[in-house]
Amino acid sequence: MAEEVKVLRTWSSPFALRIVWALKLKGVEYETILEDLSSKSPLLVQYNPVYKKVPVLVHNGKAMAESLLILEYIDETWKQKYPLLPEDPYERARARFWAKFSDDKVLPSIWDAFTTQGKEQEEAIMPVMENLKLLEEELRGKKFFSGETIGFLDLALGWLANLVSMFEEITGLKMIDEETFPLLVAWIHDFSHVPLIQETWPPRDRMLTKFRAMREPYLAAARNHLPK
Ligand SMILES: N[C@@H](CCC(=O)N[C@@H](CS)C(=O)NCC(=O)O)C(=O)O
């Protein structure tokens, strides 16, 4: 039976890029359905009724959501080419652990530092540094989080390689500097230069415009709470 693979995503979603990368690494042909999140399509709501978020993968009519779970599904379904998770059960569990840590801790802490200013931002940067130090340790002795080539954890953390430099440009706040995080800086460079990754990054200018606009309401809210 011919495979039918569809990916519901947006042009910018870092979670959806994980799926794009995994399918491309595995050589799986797929159709892209671009969503506009300001007006979600009935298809998105039908396929992901619980969260109504992208990405959604639809494989032969079966839909699934949550990018890290989709990555696992892709790895188990298209086993022959380019395994994403390590074979060893302990290493698999560790890769899942750090991927979850990235979504539960690293991303929210970086978002807090991105959407604050002044004293609030000085406080927000502390957990960012602690979280990044843990990731730095995970890279010790390795080129990529998954070893010599990119794998599950690199795809899960791919947003870090793309978003942080944009957040730094917008805020003027340095989060990942070479002196404190030499291994992360090297990883960002190496990961971003993998041809498949380079080809799929969303346009930087468009991303900068989008994130500047996303940040503004947070700053406006903070301004409104200031004593007059
Ligand atoms: N935990 C989800 C997060 C997905 C997510 O937050 N997607 C955003 C786009 S980057 C979205 O669809 N947002 C729409 C909304 O929040 O209503 C995953 O890993 O797939």
From TrEMBL:
Signal peptide: none annotated. It is an enzyme of class 2 (transferase). Its EC number is 2.5.1.18. Residues 3-82 form the GST N-terminal domain. Residues 88-211 form the GST C-terminal domain. The keyword Transferase applies. Keywords: Transferase. InterPro entries: Glutathione-S-Trfase_C-like (IPR010987), Glutathione-S-Trfase_C_sf (IPR036282), Glutathione_S-Trfase (IPR040079), Glutathione_S-Trfase_N (IPR004045), GST_C (IPR004046), GST_C_Tau (IPR045074), Omega/Tau-like (IPR045073), Thioredoxin-like_sf (IPR036249). It comes from the Eukaryota. It catalyses: RX + glutathione = an S-substituted glutathione + a halide anion + H(+). One of its GO terms (cellular component) is cytoplasm. One of its GO terms (biological process) is glutathione metabolic process. Belongs to the GST superfamily. This is glutathione transferase. It comes from Liquidambar formosana.
